[in-house]
Amino acid sequence: MCGIVGGVTDQNITPLLLEGLNRLEYRGYDSSGLIVLSKQNSFERARSVGKVSNLEMNLKSRSKEINGKIGIAHTRWATHGEPSSLNAHPHISKNTVSVVHNGIIENYLELKNIQIKQGYEFKSETDTEVIAHSIDSEMQLGSSLVESVQKAVKSFEGSYGIGVISSKYPDQIIAARKGSPLLIGISENGNYIASDQMALLSKTNKFIFLEEGDIAEVKLDKVTIYDLDGKLVNRPVQKSKLKAGQVDKGNFNHFMQKEIFEQPQAIRDTLESRITNDSVISSSFGHKADEIFRSIDQIQIAACGTSYNAGLVAKYWIEDIAKIPCHVEIASEYRYRRPILLDNTLFVTLSQSGETADTLEALKAAKKINNTLKSLCISNSAESSLTRLSDLTFLTHAGPEIGVASTKAFTTQLVSLALLMCSIGKLKGYISRRQESEIVNGLKKLPGLINEALLQETQIKQLAKSFTNKNSALFLGRGTMYAIAMEGALKLKEISYIHAEAYPAGELKHGPIALIDKNMPVIAIAPNDELLEKLKSNLQEVKSRGSKMLVFEDENSKVQSMDSMKVIPITSNLGRISAPIIFTIPLQLLSYHVALSREADVDKPRNLAKSVTVE
Ligand code: AGP
Fold first, then answer.
1. Which atom of ligand 1 is nearest to 405's Cα?
2. Given this structure, which CATH class describes domain 249-444?
Protein backbone atom coordinates (compact mmCIF):
# COMPACT_ATOMS: atom_id res chain seq x y z
CA MET A 1 0.00 0.00 0.00
CA CYS A 2 1.84 3.16 1.09
CA GLY A 3 5.62 2.99 1.45
CA ILE A 4 7.97 4.19 4.17
CA VAL A 5 11.71 4.77 4.03
CA GLY A 6 13.99 6.65 6.40
CA GLY A 7 17.47 6.67 7.81
CA VAL A 8 20.13 8.08 10.13
CA THR A 9 23.46 8.22 8.28
CA ASP A 10 26.81 9.98 8.19
CA GLN A 11 25.96 11.50 4.78
CA ASN A 12 23.19 13.55 3.19
CA ILE A 13 20.08 11.36 3.46
CA THR A 14 17.98 12.98 0.68
CA PRO A 15 19.31 10.88 -2.26
CA LEU A 16 18.67 7.68 -0.30
CA LEU A 17 15.13 8.79 0.55
CA LEU A 18 14.41 9.54 -3.12
CA GLU A 19 15.88 6.25 -4.30
CA GLY A 20 13.87 4.39 -1.67
CA LEU A 21 10.68 6.17 -2.68
CA ASN A 22 11.27 5.26 -6.33
CA ARG A 23 11.71 1.63 -5.36
CA LEU A 24 8.58 1.74 -3.19
CA GLU A 25 6.43 3.54 -5.71
CA TYR A 26 4.84 0.30 -6.84
CA ARG A 27 3.11 0.03 -3.49
CA GLY A 28 1.05 3.20 -3.82
CA TYR A 29 1.69 6.49 -5.46
CA ASP A 30 -0.88 9.22 -5.46
CA SER A 31 1.52 11.50 -3.63
CA SER A 32 4.88 11.41 -1.93
CA GLY A 33 6.98 13.42 0.44
CA LEU A 34 10.11 13.59 2.55
CA ILE A 35 11.42 15.48 5.52
CA VAL A 36 14.95 15.88 6.88
CA LEU A 37 16.40 17.56 9.92
CA SER A 38 18.80 20.28 8.82
CA LYS A 39 22.10 21.13 10.53
CA GLN A 40 20.20 23.69 12.59
CA ASN A 41 17.76 20.96 13.70
CA SER A 42 14.85 22.42 11.81
CA PHE A 43 12.47 20.43 9.62
CA GLU A 44 12.82 20.75 5.86
CA ARG A 45 9.96 19.11 4.04
CA ALA A 46 8.85 18.62 0.41
CA ARG A 47 5.59 17.02 -0.73
CA SER A 48 4.06 16.53 -4.16
CA VAL A 49 0.96 15.01 -5.70
CA GLY A 50 1.44 12.24 -8.26
CA LYS A 51 4.54 10.23 -8.92
CA VAL A 52 7.88 10.41 -7.14
CA SER A 53 9.28 12.15 -10.25
CA ASN A 54 7.05 15.13 -9.31
CA LEU A 55 8.68 15.24 -5.90
CA GLU A 56 12.11 15.12 -7.56
CA MET A 57 11.15 18.07 -9.75
CA ASN A 58 9.82 19.89 -6.70
CA LEU A 59 13.22 19.42 -4.99
CA LYS A 60 15.14 20.55 -8.08
CA SER A 61 13.05 23.70 -8.42
CA ARG A 62 14.01 24.90 -4.92
CA SER A 63 16.65 27.57 -4.47
CA LYS A 64 17.99 25.80 -1.39
CA GLU A 65 18.84 22.11 -1.26
CA ILE A 66 17.07 19.91 1.29
CA ASN A 67 20.01 18.41 3.09
CA GLY A 68 20.45 16.57 6.38
CA LYS A 69 21.70 13.32 7.87
CA ILE A 70 18.40 12.09 9.25
CA GLY A 71 15.08 11.90 7.47
CA ILE A 72 11.90 9.99 6.68
CA ALA A 73 9.88 9.71 3.48
CA HIS A 74 6.63 8.23 2.21
CA THR A 75 4.69 7.28 -0.90
CA ARG A 76 0.98 7.57 -0.25
CA TRP A 77 -2.05 5.68 -1.50
CA ALA A 78 -4.96 7.76 -0.25
CA THR A 79 -7.37 6.33 2.29
CA HIS A 80 -8.40 9.25 4.52
CA GLY A 81 -8.32 12.49 2.56
CA GLU A 82 -7.93 13.02 -1.18
CA PRO A 83 -4.51 12.87 -2.88
CA SER A 84 -3.13 16.38 -2.32
CA SER A 85 0.10 17.99 -1.12
CA LEU A 86 -1.51 18.86 2.20
CA ASN A 87 -2.55 15.27 2.80
CA ALA A 88 0.80 13.84 1.67
CA HIS A 89 3.14 12.62 4.41
CA PRO A 90 5.29 13.47 6.38
CA HIS A 91 2.99 15.30 8.79
CA ILE A 92 4.31 17.66 11.44
CA SER A 93 3.12 18.60 14.91
CA LYS A 94 4.19 21.95 16.36
CA ASN A 95 7.50 21.90 14.48
CA THR A 96 8.67 19.28 16.95
CA VAL A 97 7.48 15.90 15.70
CA SER A 98 7.17 14.55 12.18
CA VAL A 99 5.56 11.26 11.18
CA VAL A 100 5.13 8.98 8.19
CA HIS A 101 2.48 6.30 8.52
CA ASN A 102 1.19 3.20 6.76
CA GLY A 103 -2.12 1.77 7.91
CA ILE A 104 -5.30 3.33 9.27
CA ILE A 105 -6.01 4.82 12.69
CA GLU A 106 -9.65 3.85 13.00
CA ASN A 107 -10.41 6.04 16.04
CA TYR A 108 -8.76 9.12 14.55
CA LEU A 109 -11.92 11.26 14.68
CA GLU A 110 -12.28 10.66 18.39
CA LEU A 111 -8.58 11.51 18.96
CA LYS A 112 -8.81 14.51 16.64
CA ASN A 113 -11.70 16.01 18.65
CA ILE A 114 -9.69 15.66 21.88
CA GLN A 115 -6.60 17.18 20.25
CA ILE A 116 -8.57 20.13 18.81
CA LYS A 117 -9.70 20.88 22.36
CA GLN A 118 -6.04 20.69 23.45
CA GLY A 119 -5.27 23.41 20.91
CA TYR A 120 -3.77 21.37 18.06
CA GLU A 121 -4.37 22.74 14.61
CA PHE A 122 -5.07 20.23 11.85
CA LYS A 123 -3.56 20.93 8.46
CA SER A 124 -4.72 17.79 6.62
CA GLU A 125 -7.72 15.48 6.31
CA THR A 126 -5.62 12.42 7.15
CA ASP A 127 -5.82 10.07 10.10
CA THR A 128 -2.01 10.29 10.37
CA GLU A 129 -1.91 13.79 11.79
CA VAL A 130 -3.36 12.56 15.08
CA ILE A 131 -0.28 10.35 15.48
CA ALA A 132 2.06 13.34 15.27
CA HIS A 133 -0.04 15.35 17.74
CA SER A 134 -0.37 12.42 20.17
CA ILE A 135 3.40 12.02 20.28
CA ASP A 136 3.96 15.75 20.64
CA SER A 137 1.48 15.98 23.50
CA GLU A 138 3.31 13.20 25.37
CA MET A 139 6.60 15.04 24.81
CA GLN A 140 5.07 18.22 26.19
CA LEU A 141 4.38 16.26 29.38
CA GLY A 142 8.07 15.48 29.69
CA SER A 143 8.49 12.06 28.08
CA SER A 144 11.40 11.30 25.78
CA LEU A 145 10.69 10.65 22.10
CA VAL A 146 10.68 6.88 22.44
CA GLU A 147 8.57 7.00 25.62
CA SER A 148 6.13 9.35 23.89
CA VAL A 149 5.69 6.92 21.00
CA GLN A 150 5.24 4.05 23.47
CA LYS A 151 2.52 5.99 25.29
CA ALA A 152 0.86 7.39 22.16
CA VAL A 153 0.42 4.08 20.35
CA LYS A 154 -1.62 2.77 23.26
CA SER A 155 -4.44 5.11 22.23
CA PHE A 156 -4.48 4.01 18.56
CA GLU A 157 -7.07 1.57 17.26
CA GLY A 158 -6.35 0.17 13.83
CA SER A 159 -3.05 -0.50 12.16
CA TYR A 160 0.18 1.38 11.86
CA GLY A 161 3.73 1.21 10.65
CA ILE A 162 5.28 4.55 11.57
CA GLY A 163 8.56 6.41 11.31
CA VAL A 164 8.98 9.39 13.65
CA ILE A 165 11.63 12.08 13.94
CA SER A 166 11.82 15.03 16.30
CA SER A 167 13.74 18.30 16.21
CA LYS A 168 14.42 17.72 19.92
CA TYR A 169 16.07 14.33 19.28
CA PRO A 170 18.16 14.91 16.15
CA ASP A 171 20.08 11.63 16.43
CA GLN A 172 17.24 9.12 16.15
CA ILE A 173 14.27 7.75 14.28
CA ILE A 174 11.57 5.89 16.16
CA ALA A 175 9.91 3.08 14.25
CA ALA A 176 6.79 1.26 15.45
CA ARG A 177 4.54 -1.34 13.91
CA LYS A 178 1.20 -3.01 14.48
CA GLY A 179 -0.57 -4.58 11.54
CA SER A 180 1.68 -2.89 8.95
CA PRO A 181 5.12 -4.26 8.11
CA LEU A 182 8.25 -2.36 9.05
CA LEU A 183 11.90 -3.35 9.06
CA ILE A 184 15.25 -1.91 9.98
CA GLY A 185 18.21 -1.97 7.59
CA ILE A 186 21.63 -2.21 9.21
CA SER A 187 24.80 -0.86 7.61
CA GLU A 188 28.20 0.52 8.53
CA ASN A 189 27.29 4.01 7.36
CA GLY A 190 24.03 4.21 9.19
CA ASN A 191 20.78 2.51 10.01
CA TYR A 192 17.52 2.73 8.13
CA ILE A 193 13.83 1.97 8.33
CA ALA A 194 11.52 0.84 5.54
CA SER A 195 8.20 -0.85 4.95
CA ASP A 196 9.81 -3.12 2.37
CA GLN A 197 13.41 -4.30 1.98
CA MET A 198 13.40 -3.26 -1.68
CA ALA A 199 13.69 0.37 -0.60
CA LEU A 200 17.08 -0.28 1.00
CA LEU A 201 18.71 -2.94 -1.15
CA SER A 202 21.30 -0.57 -2.59
CA LYS A 203 22.47 0.26 0.96
CA THR A 204 22.27 -3.04 2.79
CA ASN A 205 21.13 -6.64 2.72
CA LYS A 206 21.00 -6.95 6.51
CA PHE A 207 17.55 -6.52 8.00
CA ILE A 208 15.73 -6.77 11.31
CA PHE A 209 12.04 -7.50 10.80
CA LEU A 210 10.06 -5.80 13.56
CA GLU A 211 7.41 -7.92 15.19
CA GLU A 212 3.82 -6.95 16.06
CA GLY A 213 3.86 -4.18 18.66
CA ASP A 214 7.63 -3.53 18.47
CA ILE A 215 9.02 -0.03 18.88
CA ALA A 216 12.61 0.65 17.80
CA GLU A 217 14.99 3.51 18.50
CA VAL A 218 17.23 3.75 15.45
CA LYS A 219 20.48 5.71 15.75
CA LEU A 220 23.57 6.03 13.53
CA ASP A 221 25.42 3.22 15.28
CA LYS A 222 22.82 1.56 17.47
CA VAL A 223 19.36 0.02 17.27
CA THR A 224 17.33 -0.62 20.42
CA ILE A 225 14.06 -2.53 20.24
CA TYR A 226 11.23 -2.74 22.77
CA ASP A 227 8.30 -5.12 22.55
CA LEU A 228 4.61 -4.42 23.08
CA ASP A 229 5.09 -4.36 26.86
CA GLY A 230 8.07 -2.02 26.70
CA LYS A 231 10.60 -4.78 27.44
CA LEU A 232 13.99 -4.64 25.70
CA VAL A 233 14.13 -7.41 23.09
CA ASN A 234 16.64 -8.83 20.64
CA ARG A 235 15.40 -9.44 17.14
CA PRO A 236 17.66 -11.38 14.77
CA VAL A 237 19.51 -9.66 11.93
CA GLN A 238 18.71 -11.55 8.74
CA LYS A 239 20.59 -11.50 5.44
CA SER A 240 18.36 -10.95 2.43
CA LYS A 241 18.99 -12.91 -0.74
CA LEU A 242 17.42 -10.16 -2.83
CA LYS A 243 19.71 -7.98 -4.94
CA ALA A 244 19.04 -4.42 -6.05
CA GLY A 245 19.39 -5.49 -9.73
CA GLN A 246 16.50 -7.94 -9.36
CA VAL A 247 14.17 -5.03 -9.05
CA ASP A 248 15.16 -3.36 -12.32
CA LYS A 249 13.35 -3.69 -15.65
CA GLY A 250 16.39 -5.07 -17.47
CA ASN A 251 15.79 -5.07 -21.26
CA PHE A 252 12.03 -4.99 -20.92
CA ASN A 253 9.78 -1.97 -21.32
CA HIS A 254 7.76 -2.65 -18.21
CA PHE A 255 8.04 -4.72 -15.05
CA MET A 256 4.84 -6.52 -16.03
CA GLN A 257 6.34 -7.62 -19.36
CA LYS A 258 9.55 -8.70 -17.65
CA GLU A 259 7.60 -10.64 -15.04
CA ILE A 260 5.44 -12.38 -17.68
CA PHE A 261 8.63 -13.53 -19.40
CA GLU A 262 10.25 -14.56 -16.12
CA GLN A 263 7.58 -17.20 -15.52
CA PRO A 264 9.51 -20.21 -16.87
CA GLN A 265 12.39 -19.44 -14.49
CA ALA A 266 10.09 -18.54 -11.60
CA ILE A 267 8.39 -21.93 -11.94
CA ARG A 268 11.75 -23.74 -12.14
CA ASP A 269 12.78 -21.93 -8.94
CA THR A 270 9.50 -22.81 -7.23
CA LEU A 271 9.92 -26.48 -8.10
CA GLU A 272 13.58 -26.65 -7.16
CA SER A 273 14.18 -28.81 -4.07
CA ARG A 274 10.46 -29.42 -3.80
CA ILE A 275 10.34 -32.42 -6.14
CA THR A 276 12.54 -35.42 -6.85
CA ASN A 277 12.58 -37.23 -10.18
CA ASP A 278 9.03 -38.43 -9.77
CA SER A 279 7.66 -37.37 -6.41
CA VAL A 280 6.78 -34.32 -4.35
CA ILE A 281 8.81 -33.63 -1.20
CA SER A 282 5.91 -32.90 1.13
CA SER A 283 8.24 -31.78 3.92
CA SER A 284 9.01 -28.69 1.79
CA PHE A 285 5.78 -27.33 3.31
CA GLY A 286 7.43 -27.55 6.75
CA HIS A 287 8.77 -30.26 9.01
CA LYS A 288 5.35 -30.92 10.50
CA ALA A 289 3.65 -31.00 7.09
CA ASP A 290 3.32 -34.78 6.77
CA GLU A 291 1.71 -35.10 10.19
CA ILE A 292 -0.65 -32.18 9.53
CA PHE A 293 -1.59 -33.25 6.01
CA ARG A 294 -2.41 -36.78 7.19
CA SER A 295 -4.71 -35.43 9.88
CA ILE A 296 -6.84 -33.05 7.83
CA ASP A 297 -10.29 -33.77 6.44
CA GLN A 298 -10.95 -30.49 4.62
CA ILE A 299 -9.26 -27.40 3.28
CA GLN A 300 -10.41 -23.79 3.57
CA ILE A 301 -8.63 -21.29 1.32
CA ALA A 302 -8.87 -17.53 1.91
CA ALA A 303 -7.28 -14.94 -0.37
CA CYS A 304 -7.91 -11.75 -2.34
CA GLY A 305 -7.79 -10.74 -6.00
CA THR A 306 -5.44 -12.78 -8.14
CA SER A 307 -4.53 -15.00 -5.19
CA TYR A 308 -8.23 -15.80 -4.75
CA ASN A 309 -8.40 -16.83 -8.42
CA ALA A 310 -5.48 -19.20 -7.83
CA GLY A 311 -7.44 -20.68 -4.92
CA LEU A 312 -10.43 -21.29 -7.19
CA VAL A 313 -8.28 -23.32 -9.60
CA ALA A 314 -6.92 -25.32 -6.66
CA LYS A 315 -10.41 -26.18 -5.45
CA TYR A 316 -11.04 -28.12 -8.68
CA TRP A 317 -7.71 -29.94 -8.38
CA ILE A 318 -8.01 -30.70 -4.67
CA GLU A 319 -11.54 -32.10 -4.88
CA ASP A 320 -11.12 -33.87 -8.28
CA ILE A 321 -7.72 -35.42 -7.69
CA ALA A 322 -6.91 -35.42 -3.96
CA LYS A 323 -10.57 -36.05 -2.98
CA ILE A 324 -10.54 -33.62 -0.03
CA PRO A 325 -13.42 -31.14 0.37
CA CYS A 326 -12.12 -27.64 -0.36
CA HIS A 327 -13.80 -24.25 0.07
CA VAL A 328 -12.41 -21.00 -1.27
CA GLU A 329 -13.46 -17.60 -0.04
CA ILE A 330 -12.64 -13.97 -0.59
CA ALA A 331 -10.78 -13.01 2.59
CA SER A 332 -12.51 -9.65 3.07
CA GLU A 333 -15.86 -11.48 3.24
CA TYR A 334 -14.62 -14.40 5.25
CA ARG A 335 -13.32 -12.25 8.09
CA TYR A 336 -16.79 -10.86 8.78
CA ARG A 337 -18.80 -14.05 8.46
CA ARG A 338 -19.34 -16.57 11.18
CA PRO A 339 -18.23 -19.56 9.17
CA ILE A 340 -18.27 -23.10 10.46
CA LEU A 341 -14.78 -24.49 10.71
CA LEU A 342 -14.73 -28.17 11.53
CA ASP A 343 -11.85 -29.75 13.41
CA ASN A 344 -9.16 -31.16 11.11
CA THR A 345 -9.35 -28.21 8.73
CA LEU A 346 -6.26 -26.93 6.98
CA PHE A 347 -6.68 -23.17 6.59
CA VAL A 348 -4.66 -22.01 3.58
CA THR A 349 -3.90 -18.36 2.91
CA LEU A 350 -2.55 -17.35 -0.48
CA SER A 351 -0.79 -14.04 -0.74
CA GLN A 352 1.99 -12.74 -2.94
CA SER A 353 2.94 -10.08 -0.41
CA GLY A 354 2.04 -11.95 2.75
CA GLU A 355 0.80 -8.61 4.06
CA THR A 356 -2.72 -8.26 2.68
CA ALA A 357 -4.72 -7.00 5.65
CA ASP A 358 -7.96 -8.81 4.72
CA THR A 359 -6.19 -12.15 4.33
CA LEU A 360 -4.31 -11.69 7.57
CA GLU A 361 -7.52 -10.85 9.42
CA ALA A 362 -9.30 -13.83 7.84
CA LEU A 363 -6.61 -16.10 9.27
CA LYS A 364 -6.89 -14.47 12.70
CA ALA A 365 -10.69 -14.80 12.59
CA ALA A 366 -10.43 -18.46 11.61
CA LYS A 367 -8.06 -19.15 14.50
CA LYS A 368 -10.57 -17.59 16.89
CA ILE A 369 -13.40 -19.72 15.51
CA ASN A 370 -11.52 -22.98 15.87
CA ASN A 371 -8.22 -22.96 17.68
CA THR A 372 -7.44 -26.51 16.61
CA LEU A 373 -7.10 -25.61 12.96
CA LYS A 374 -3.77 -25.86 11.22
CA SER A 375 -2.68 -23.10 8.89
CA LEU A 376 -0.52 -22.91 5.81
CA CYS A 377 0.54 -19.74 4.05
CA ILE A 378 1.65 -19.83 0.41
CA SER A 379 3.46 -16.56 -0.16
CA ASN A 380 6.15 -14.89 -2.19
CA SER A 381 7.52 -13.12 0.84
CA ALA A 382 9.61 -15.01 3.36
CA GLU A 383 9.31 -12.55 6.20
CA SER A 384 5.72 -11.46 6.27
CA SER A 385 2.92 -11.10 8.77
CA LEU A 386 1.06 -14.04 7.23
CA THR A 387 3.99 -16.42 7.26
CA ARG A 388 4.72 -15.53 10.88
CA LEU A 389 1.17 -16.37 11.89
CA SER A 390 0.96 -19.69 10.06
CA ASP A 391 1.93 -23.19 11.19
CA LEU A 392 3.33 -24.02 7.76
CA THR A 393 4.83 -21.80 5.08
CA PHE A 394 5.52 -22.49 1.44
CA LEU A 395 7.40 -19.83 -0.52
CA THR A 396 6.67 -19.39 -4.19
CA HIS A 397 10.20 -18.23 -5.14
CA ALA A 398 8.83 -16.08 -7.96
CA GLY A 399 11.35 -13.34 -7.13
CA PRO A 400 10.29 -9.73 -6.57
CA GLU A 401 7.08 -8.84 -8.38
CA ILE A 402 6.95 -5.10 -8.96
CA GLY A 403 4.20 -4.69 -11.56
CA VAL A 404 0.98 -4.03 -9.68
CA ALA A 405 -0.77 -6.59 -11.87
CA SER A 406 0.21 -9.97 -10.54
CA THR A 407 1.58 -12.39 -13.15
CA LYS A 408 4.41 -14.69 -12.05
CA ALA A 409 3.07 -14.72 -8.50
CA PHE A 410 -0.15 -16.26 -9.85
CA THR A 411 1.43 -19.03 -11.90
CA THR A 412 3.89 -19.92 -9.14
CA GLN A 413 0.99 -20.01 -6.67
CA LEU A 414 -0.72 -22.49 -8.99
CA VAL A 415 2.42 -24.63 -9.09
CA SER A 416 2.63 -24.51 -5.29
CA LEU A 417 -1.03 -25.47 -4.97
CA ALA A 418 -0.49 -28.40 -7.34
CA LEU A 419 2.34 -29.58 -5.07
CA LEU A 420 0.06 -29.15 -2.05
CA MET A 421 -2.75 -31.10 -3.69
CA CYS A 422 -0.34 -33.86 -4.62
CA SER A 423 1.26 -34.05 -1.16
CA ILE A 424 -2.08 -34.23 0.64
CA GLY A 425 -3.64 -36.66 -1.86
CA LYS A 426 -0.61 -38.94 -1.58
CA LEU A 427 -0.51 -38.89 2.22
CA LYS A 428 -4.26 -39.51 2.45
CA GLY A 429 -3.94 -42.41 0.03
CA TYR A 430 -5.97 -40.91 -2.83
CA ILE A 431 -3.09 -40.32 -5.21
CA SER A 432 -1.11 -43.33 -6.36
CA ARG A 433 2.64 -43.40 -7.02
CA ARG A 434 1.92 -43.51 -10.75
CA GLN A 435 -0.39 -40.48 -10.57
CA GLU A 436 2.15 -38.59 -8.47
CA SER A 437 4.87 -39.32 -10.99
CA GLU A 438 2.63 -38.08 -13.83
CA ILE A 439 1.83 -34.88 -11.96
CA VAL A 440 5.51 -34.21 -11.21
CA ASN A 441 6.53 -34.84 -14.81
CA GLY A 442 3.75 -32.55 -16.00
CA LEU A 443 4.99 -29.79 -13.69
CA LYS A 444 8.55 -30.16 -14.97
CA LYS A 445 7.35 -29.50 -18.52
CA LEU A 446 5.70 -26.20 -17.58
CA PRO A 447 8.69 -23.87 -18.23
CA GLY A 448 9.04 -25.22 -21.80
CA LEU A 449 5.30 -24.97 -22.44
CA ILE A 450 5.22 -21.40 -21.14
CA ASN A 451 8.07 -20.47 -23.48
CA GLU A 452 6.00 -21.90 -26.32
CA ALA A 453 2.94 -19.88 -25.27
CA LEU A 454 5.07 -16.71 -25.02
CA LEU A 455 5.87 -17.09 -28.73
CA GLN A 456 2.30 -15.93 -29.42
CA GLU A 457 3.13 -12.42 -28.19
CA THR A 458 3.44 -10.83 -31.65
CA GLN A 459 0.11 -12.23 -32.77
CA ILE A 460 -1.60 -11.25 -29.50
CA LYS A 461 -0.15 -7.74 -29.73
CA GLN A 462 -1.78 -7.41 -33.16
CA LEU A 463 -5.13 -8.70 -31.88
CA ALA A 464 -5.00 -6.39 -28.87
CA LYS A 465 -5.53 -3.41 -31.20
CA SER A 466 -9.14 -4.47 -31.76
CA PHE A 467 -9.78 -3.89 -28.03
CA THR A 468 -8.37 -0.36 -27.90
CA ASN A 469 -11.74 1.34 -28.19
CA LYS A 470 -13.90 -1.19 -26.41
CA ASN A 471 -15.65 -0.43 -23.17
CA SER A 472 -16.37 -3.96 -22.03
CA ALA A 473 -15.26 -7.53 -22.56
CA LEU A 474 -16.53 -10.92 -21.46
CA PHE A 475 -14.27 -13.84 -20.56
CA LEU A 476 -15.62 -17.39 -20.74
CA GLY A 477 -14.31 -20.70 -19.50
CA ARG A 478 -15.52 -23.89 -17.88
CA GLY A 479 -14.08 -25.82 -14.97
CA THR A 480 -10.64 -24.49 -13.96
CA MET A 481 -10.80 -22.25 -17.02
CA TYR A 482 -13.60 -20.31 -15.38
CA ALA A 483 -11.10 -19.31 -12.69
CA ILE A 484 -8.57 -18.48 -15.42
CA ALA A 485 -11.24 -16.41 -17.19
CA MET A 486 -11.70 -14.52 -13.90
CA GLU A 487 -7.98 -13.88 -13.73
CA GLY A 488 -7.98 -12.72 -17.39
CA ALA A 489 -10.85 -10.32 -16.69
CA LEU A 490 -9.16 -8.99 -13.54
CA LYS A 491 -5.92 -8.35 -15.46
CA LEU A 492 -7.72 -6.53 -18.28
CA LYS A 493 -9.74 -4.28 -16.00
CA GLU A 494 -6.94 -3.36 -13.62
CA ILE A 495 -4.43 -2.24 -16.23
CA SER A 496 -6.50 -1.18 -19.26
CA TYR A 497 -9.58 0.13 -17.38
CA ILE A 498 -11.87 -1.79 -19.73
CA HIS A 499 -14.81 -3.21 -17.85
CA ALA A 500 -14.40 -6.98 -17.98
CA GLU A 501 -16.37 -9.84 -16.52
CA ALA A 502 -15.85 -13.55 -16.41
CA TYR A 503 -18.55 -16.20 -16.55
CA PRO A 504 -18.61 -19.95 -16.53
CA ALA A 505 -19.67 -20.47 -20.18
CA GLY A 506 -22.67 -22.59 -19.16
CA GLU A 507 -24.07 -19.73 -17.08
CA LEU A 508 -24.29 -17.37 -20.05
CA LYS A 509 -27.83 -18.25 -20.98
CA HIS A 510 -28.98 -17.46 -17.43
CA GLY A 511 -28.55 -13.75 -17.92
CA PRO A 512 -25.26 -12.37 -19.24
CA ILE A 513 -26.04 -13.37 -22.83
CA ALA A 514 -28.32 -10.31 -22.87
CA LEU A 515 -25.16 -8.17 -22.90
CA ILE A 516 -23.80 -9.67 -26.07
CA ASP A 517 -23.75 -7.64 -29.26
CA LYS A 518 -21.12 -6.56 -31.77
CA ASN A 519 -19.56 -4.15 -29.27
CA MET A 520 -18.93 -6.77 -26.63
CA PRO A 521 -15.87 -8.86 -27.48
CA VAL A 522 -15.81 -12.33 -25.97
CA ILE A 523 -12.60 -14.10 -25.01
CA ALA A 524 -12.92 -17.83 -24.48
CA ILE A 525 -10.51 -20.54 -23.36
CA ALA A 526 -10.94 -23.92 -25.00
CA PRO A 527 -8.78 -26.71 -23.56
CA ASN A 528 -9.23 -30.18 -24.98
CA ASP A 529 -11.11 -31.58 -21.99
CA GLU A 530 -14.38 -33.33 -21.19
CA LEU A 531 -16.28 -30.02 -21.33
CA LEU A 532 -15.01 -29.03 -24.79
CA GLU A 533 -18.17 -29.94 -26.71
CA LYS A 534 -20.32 -28.09 -24.19
CA LEU A 535 -18.07 -25.04 -24.56
CA LYS A 536 -18.33 -25.22 -28.34
CA SER A 537 -22.13 -25.06 -28.03
CA ASN A 538 -21.79 -22.04 -25.73
CA LEU A 539 -19.56 -20.35 -28.32
CA GLN A 540 -22.23 -20.94 -30.98
CA GLU A 541 -24.75 -19.18 -28.75
CA VAL A 542 -22.42 -16.17 -28.55
CA LYS A 543 -21.62 -16.20 -32.26
CA SER A 544 -25.26 -16.05 -33.25
CA ARG A 545 -25.62 -12.83 -31.19
CA GLY A 546 -23.05 -11.06 -33.38
CA SER A 547 -20.13 -10.84 -30.94
CA LYS A 548 -16.51 -10.82 -32.08
CA MET A 549 -14.78 -13.72 -30.39
CA LEU A 550 -11.21 -14.55 -29.54
CA VAL A 551 -10.59 -18.16 -28.59
CA PHE A 552 -7.36 -19.50 -27.08
CA GLU A 553 -7.43 -23.24 -27.66
CA ASP A 554 -5.50 -26.47 -27.31
CA GLU A 555 -4.42 -27.44 -30.85
CA ASN A 556 -6.52 -30.58 -30.55
CA SER A 557 -9.66 -28.70 -29.56
CA LYS A 558 -10.21 -27.77 -33.22
CA VAL A 559 -12.53 -24.84 -32.66
CA GLN A 560 -13.41 -23.54 -36.09
CA SER A 561 -11.94 -20.14 -36.96
CA MET A 562 -14.22 -17.79 -38.91
CA ASP A 563 -14.70 -14.07 -39.53
CA SER A 564 -16.35 -13.44 -36.22
CA MET A 565 -14.19 -15.92 -34.32
CA LYS A 566 -10.38 -15.75 -34.24
CA VAL A 567 -8.94 -18.99 -32.86
CA ILE A 568 -5.38 -19.09 -31.54
CA PRO A 569 -3.91 -22.49 -30.75
CA ILE A 570 -1.58 -22.18 -27.76
CA THR A 571 -0.17 -25.66 -27.47
CA SER A 572 -1.44 -29.24 -27.38
CA ASN A 573 -2.04 -32.15 -25.03
CA LEU A 574 -2.24 -30.10 -21.86
CA GLY A 575 -3.23 -31.98 -18.75
CA ARG A 576 -5.64 -30.95 -15.99
CA ILE A 577 -2.85 -29.23 -14.06
CA SER A 578 -0.83 -27.66 -16.82
CA ALA A 579 -3.81 -26.32 -18.83
CA PRO A 580 -4.89 -23.52 -16.45
CA ILE A 581 -1.28 -22.43 -15.97
CA ILE A 582 -0.52 -22.31 -19.69
CA PHE A 583 -3.78 -20.62 -20.73
CA THR A 584 -3.01 -17.84 -18.25
CA ILE A 585 -0.10 -16.69 -20.44
CA PRO A 586 -2.04 -15.47 -23.51
CA LEU A 587 -4.49 -13.67 -21.22
CA GLN A 588 -1.64 -11.84 -19.46
CA LEU A 589 -0.13 -10.87 -22.82
CA LEU A 590 -3.51 -9.72 -24.10
CA SER A 591 -4.20 -7.42 -21.16
CA TYR A 592 -0.63 -6.08 -21.27
CA HIS A 593 -0.88 -5.14 -24.98
CA VAL A 594 -4.43 -3.81 -24.73
CA ALA A 595 -3.30 -1.55 -21.87
CA LEU A 596 -0.34 -0.36 -23.95
CA SER A 597 -2.57 0.35 -26.93
CA ARG A 598 -4.70 2.54 -24.63
CA GLU A 599 -1.55 4.26 -23.37
CA ALA A 600 -2.29 3.20 -19.81
CA ASP A 601 0.40 3.09 -17.13
CA VAL A 602 0.85 -0.69 -17.13
CA ASP A 603 3.02 -1.05 -14.04
CA LYS A 604 1.26 1.55 -11.95
CA PRO A 605 -2.44 1.46 -12.76
CA ARG A 606 -4.56 4.22 -11.30
CA ASN A 607 -6.05 3.78 -7.83
CA LEU A 608 -4.24 0.50 -7.21
CA ALA A 609 -1.50 -0.54 -4.85
CA LYS A 610 0.66 -3.63 -4.99
CA SER A 611 0.09 -4.70 -1.46
CA VAL A 612 -3.17 -3.78 0.27
CA THR A 613 -2.18 -3.48 3.90
CA VAL A 614 -5.30 -1.62 4.99
CA GLU A 615 -8.87 -2.76 5.04
C1 AGP B 1 -3.48 -8.66 -8.80
O2 AGP B 1 -3.17 -8.34 -10.11
C3 AGP B 1 -3.89 -7.59 -7.94
N4 AGP B 1 -3.13 -6.44 -8.04
C5 AGP B 1 -4.51 -7.92 -6.61
O6 AGP B 1 -5.75 -8.50 -6.90
C7 AGP B 1 -3.76 -8.86 -5.62
O8 AGP B 1 -3.69 -10.14 -6.14
C9 AGP B 1 -4.50 -8.85 -4.27
O10 AGP B 1 -4.49 -7.56 -3.74
C11 AGP B 1 -3.92 -9.83 -3.28
O12 AGP B 1 -2.59 -9.55 -3.00
P13 AGP B 1 -1.65 -10.59 -2.25
O14 AGP B 1 -1.52 -11.78 -3.14
O15 AGP B 1 -0.37 -9.87 -2.03
O16 AGP B 1 -2.35 -10.95 -0.97
1. 2
2. alpha beta
